[in-house]
Amino acid sequence: MPTADPVLFVSDHVSGSVDVVHLPDGAVAHRLTGRHLSEHAGFLALPGGRVACVDDRRGELLVLAPHGDRLVESATPVAVPAEHLASDPSGRLVAVTTGLGENAEPWSDLVTVVDLGTGEVSRVRTRVGEPGVTVLGGGDPLVVLRHREPGGLAVHRFAELLAAPPGCPLVAPHALLPLPGDGHGDAQLPSARQVFAATGEGVHRARREGDGLAAEGVIPWESPARGWYLRLDTRRQALCSTLRGGPPEPARWPEWSNEAWHHDLRTGRTHRTALGPGLVFRLALTKSGTAFTRVHPDGDELILLDAGDGLRRVPLPAMDGAPRRGGTPWDGVERRALAASPGSDLVAVSRGGHGEVHVVDARTGAEVNRLRLTAPLHHGGHLAMRTRDDGAEGDPVGR
Q: pLDDT per residue over 10-54, tens digit each?
């Protein structure tokens, strides 16, 4: 396979499988069974086209190397259920936070740090919740935990966490920056040593100063809606999100409004594009633009937004068990996962419960392949797309 061609990681976290598929032809290169990856923590891009992810059942951080003979490059014990996953800009130092899992309330305060270069690993206790995480690089790398209720960015020295004694000791941050209590969504711009956190007010910025953080101005959403998901566009040096507005009740999800939100970090300009009503969740970044899926009782679609603001809508076949009017879009229903690579114009979108993945050319909107897998991909599964040299590791936060 030419190195420019992407590979697609397809995880069915319910049935417990991971397929690695060559694109666009659909040939399966590797398959793992008995691996239940954390859908919430997602895939973390590492150098060389590799990814990291967490097996929530076995409690292991996996590094998957699709271009080698052995897919699982390493497996390191970590605390679960995994909530968020991030690395320093080198891809060597990794932090994993824990969250709810299949529980109604936060109960775990464990954070795991791993040095992939040496194999060293340590677990510490911080604060019960669902913390987001970023790992800032430099001579003394920092772990930044984004807490909620009360909100704050808690700063820890990576080396101190790694050197903590056994027994999962409770650790206190050496610096704390206040944040609103409704934070959800994290990103890092490695070149500027900046971290970003999405809240109802907008995107809060902080820059590393020594072993702490200095607050910078908030980037407003410029909309009555807000973003719950935040990521860095590595090709265009921009922050991207989807803004959700409308009635707060989950049962009224078909009435939710959705906008694509793009903030250019070089110019400071923000652009919003209406996507339509329904459920729009995570986005994916292609070589030439951004991809979204929109789920709605009147029909689902893949939405392709190019860098010039051109919008293309591609209808998607319905899912059995899709969210319905009067119910929630989360509980006991099928969903769609989405993946793209900044080194490719292909987009992959799953059809939850059907074991299908549509592969679409973002330039034309044409479906170039439809993968039929042995796993049903309940809840949509989770997808990641990489080429060996796509630079996706420039966004060192799990997606």
A: 999 999 999 999 999 999 999 999 999 999 999 999 999 999 999
Q: What is the pLDDT of residues 74-115, one digit of tens each?
A: 999 999 999 999 999 999 999 999 999 989 898 999 999 999
pLDDT at position 1 over 90: no
**Is the per-residue pLDDT at 63 higher than 70?**
yes
∠ CA 388-394-399 to the nearest 5 degrees? 85
pLDDT band at 138 (very low <50, low <70, confident <90, very high): confident
Alpha helices (H) along 108-182: 158-162
Query: 251 phi and psi, to 5 degrees?
Result: -70, -15
Decide: helix, strand or coil at residue 47: helix
Query: How far is CA 249 from each of CA 253, 261, 325, 382, rounded to the nearest angstrom?
Result: 7, 23, 12, 26
Sequence length of the chain is 399
- List own/partner pairs for 198-203 with CB under 8 A and 24 or more apart: 198/226, 198/227, 198/228, 198/229, 198/230, 198/241, 199/151, 199/226, 200/226, 203/227, 203/230, 203/239, 203/241, 203/263
Backbone angles phi, psi at 204, to 5 degrees: -85, 135
Closest CA to 295 of 344, 345, 353: 353
Contact between 79 and 110 under an 8 Å Cβ cutoff? The reply is yes
Tell me how far CA of residue 282 lies from CA of 107, 140, 228, 232, 260, in angstroms. Answer: 26, 32, 9, 13, 11
Phi, psi of 374 (to 5 degrees): -75, -25
At 140-158, the pLDDT tens digits run: 999 999 999 999 999 999 9
Q: How far apart are CA 235 and CA 285, in angstroms?
A: 9
pTM above 0.90, yes or no: yes
On the question of pLDDT at 2 being above 90, the answer is no
C-alpha closest to that of 384 among 70, 58, 30, 39: 39
For the chain, domain boundaries: 7-394
CA distance 364 to 356: 21
Q: What's the confidence (pLDDT) of residue 387? A: 96
Q: What CATH code would you report for 7-394?
A: 2.130.10.10
- CB within 8 A of 202, min separation 6: which ones? 218, 219, 220, 221
